[in-house]
Amino acid sequence: MFSVEVRERIMIGHSLPDPFFGPAQNMHGATFVVDVAFFRETLTKQNVVVDIGAALDVLNKTLKPLNYQNLDTLPQFSGVLTTTEFLCKYVFDAMAEAAKSGALGQDGAGLARIRVTLHETDLARATYEGALA
Known about the structure:
- The chain is α+β, with helices and mostly antiparallel strands.
- It is built from 2 helices and 5 strands.
- Helices cover 23% and strands 32% of the residues.
- Strands 3-1-2-4-5 form a 5-stranded mixed β-sheet.
- The longest helix is centred in the C-terminal third of the chain and has 18 residues, at 84-101.
């Protein structure tokens, strides 16, 4: 299987108000490195997996409304524990929709899978990966 991966960064603030999270229950910041990998069985007629420029553009547009924001105050996250794992799925859903809608270029619909990884530090990261129907 072929893959192409793009990367962006965001800085967010949030709290995780559940005793499970110990000190992270309190307001804190995080800087995430966000990697999105696109997979397909065969290359397009241009011998690529996906249009890298379009992939970077969609990723930037997905993350821009979150950058330098307190996620606790955003309506789409009201009452949600915005864990790294949760945010991986949030980005995945946006990228999957972009593939289906044509925002990743005409060949985006031919992608087999997408994997989103958020790196919290060089020691910790979370991933969500799924097939595209």
